[in-house]
Amino acid sequence: PVLVESLLVFAVVLAVHGVVWDRFSWCALALALQAFYVQFKWDRLLQLGGAVFQFRGAANSGLLPSSMVIPLLGIVMKERCRAAGIVYFERFGIVVASTGMLLALFLSVLAVGITKPVPTNTCILTGIAGSVIIYTMKHSLAVSEVIEVLEVLLIFVYLSMILLYLLPRCFTPGEALLVLGGVSFVLNQLIKRSLNVIEGRGDPIDFFLLVVVVGVVLLGLFFTVLFTFMDSGTWISSMFFHMMTAVLGLGVIMPWLYRLIQRNPLFWLLQFLFQTQTRLYLLLYWSLLAASACGVVFYQNAKRSSGSKKHQASTITRKYFHFIVVATYVPGLIYDRQLLYVAAVLCLAVFIFLEYVRYFRIKPFGQTLRHLLSLFLDERDSGPLILTHIYLLLGMSLPVWLFPRSCAPKGTLSGAGALVPYSGVLAVGVGDTIASVFGSTMGEIKWPGTKKTFEGTMTAIFAQIIAVALILIFDSNVNLNSSYAWILASVSLVSLLEAYTTQIDNLLLPLYLQIMFMA
Predict the structure, then answer these.
(1) 347-369: b or e for each residue (b if 16 or more CB lie within 10 Å)?
(2) Which of 71, 144, 211, 400 is the most exposed place for a label (fewest CB within 10 A)?
(3) pLDDT band for position 411 (cuts 50, 70, 90)
(4) Long-range contact pairs involving 438-442 (C-beta distance under 8 Å, separation at least 24)
């Protein structure tokens, strides 16, 4: 399975660079080749318990598929913005690609350094890849951009040491690279923009995303440190939690956002949410869907408490939430993408806050949330945090947040690029859901070395093609310009990757589909 997963990732890399070939292509190929070899060192360290931190079990390291995501995103973003003539975001894409390569190289060097005996051939390969990447960065980046890349690397190192120690068994090395690398980049961007505020420059919804993500992460770090010295399950601790959340929110996060958008954040948010009648209808519709999702949770727990011997929700039951998320995102993508952008940020903040309440057993809802959500755990929730629902939200939202609006004429890209915001809907909402439901109920022919079935994968590909046809019918902004063969190849590669990867597919698959569509 690891070899097939690696082959699929190499296929994506070659497909992207078959379309986009420049000096960074050599870097990406060198990075992929050395990540393939180092991945086996990480897998051996995980099996022998020789890794520095405790990583998630029942999965390989995932170094190769995760190492290529950020560099490829930066490369395709650079090409899209270069074609549109937007120099600022073209340079931004170069910084993103360079940062992703350096973070992946750091993880590789770490694995090689702690492997005993030292793997000579892998060391040489990693050294060659590092030399190619550093040489290309030297001739591509300005001094300020090099400093920015090094800042992100420094934040990533410290954030990794803190969070991987505090949250054992929550991530594989590859997932840690994606999640912590993304948070590090967001934190660095927020600091950079806060120090260089220019009135009227920048979209408020982008600042909103940056401040909310950094705010909830800092909130979690603060309470993690605090509750190592006191019991979090008492009423006094719970009152202190709520009080400090309000203080940090109103005293730090709100003024920070005010400095960036130059207006009252609460008034701006209320005005934004209720600006048009369409937004009111969408908010009402989403509220009904949220209530239905809560109803599913309560109903399944009621079945468990009524004497059912089944202690875990089935795969089909968990996929109810995927259907609800698809029903949530599709109208937002068609009618108001900016509202969907902001609503997804708010939903992410709520999800993470509720996870803090559950994890720290904050009264009065902490213990109740532990009981309600335990029914929906699977083997990927082996650590102290329950992250699968947050990964689902991220997988659906990242294509919307990372969509290069400034480099898209009239708010949309041409060809397959027009489907970029729908990457999460197609890969996770449709493909992954249909593959799981049909594979678990009707699948008989298993892919070699996995539990996934041939029938599930083929049905997923077919369902995504039907979904693309429906998007063409209902979304007038989508114009594929005869790029159907590329769309079919992209969907097929990502569906096969879903069958073979042991990483969090909710997070990985939409990003790879977005990369293919943007290329």
Answers:
(1) bbbebbbbbbbbbbbbbeebeeb
(2) 144
(3) low
(4) 440/315, 440/316, 441/316
